[in-house]
Amino acid sequence: MRCIFCKKDSSLSVAIEHVIPESLGNTKLTLPKGTVCDRCNNYFATHIEQPILQSNEFLYLRFNQELKNKRRKVPAAKVIFGDQVVNARRLGSLSFSFDSEDFAKIEAYLAAGGDKMMIPVSGTPPDDTLTSRWLAKMGLEMLAHRWQNIDRWNDYIVEHAGLDEVRRYARAPKPGEKWDYGKRRIYEQNSSISTPDGQSAQMIYECDILATGTEESSEFYFVVAIFGVEYSINLGGNSMDGYYVSGSAGPSPDADFSNA
Length: 260
Ligand SMILES: [Zn+2]
Description:
- The chain has helices spanning 38-54, 56-64, 100-111, 128-147, 153-159, 164-171, and strands at residues 17-18, 30-31, 77-81, 84-92, 95-98, 117-118, 182-185, 192-194, 200-202, 205-212, 219-226, 229-234, 258-259.
- By secondary structure, it is α+β, with helices and mostly antiparallel strands.
- Zinc ion (ZN) binds at residues 3, 5-6, 8, 37, 39-40.
């Protein structure tokens, strides 16, 4: 087995790679040992996933959706009592704990007649370069996940020259390199969908690989929706031209879409 990013022998690697971070609610979408070597797995965790998950946008998503990390903890976040900003740990949907110093501030605010508590619903998104590299990483992994039952899938992905740009960009971009990606909200964070058996459920994430163009010049796009925000990136290189029609969000109506 060789790593789909650095192409080095990964037969002795032990890490189980999560396509979407565990801290965003993914426990099922994983890759067999060695698909991503331990070094690359570590690199992505430290240099891409951690800063993404700690950005205010994802921090508040995790806080508000009570998403637990690997250590089964929901991250702490800042909440607002009038003019006081305090650090809160979430114990339940409407139950919080505070440090004693912050608790004193809240008590003083309430004693002075204050009556407002606010929890931000969104925050500043992570850096664009980081976001696009994260999408590149998840996209190549999703291809591996999709193809893992095909004979010689590992050789095919490692030797596919058309995927060299995306693996390089995810793992070792050139200085200043920044790929385009798409981002738009397609449904509300808490909206529910109907399941086939008639239940109502919250969509945590969904992702897919789309192929556009002709068979000779096909392009693979990775599309993932996380709590209602859809992200897309071209796995063939830095261009979203085949996915957008003159700047408007959404697939081109004349593109030939089929599941890869
Ligand atoms: Zn590797």
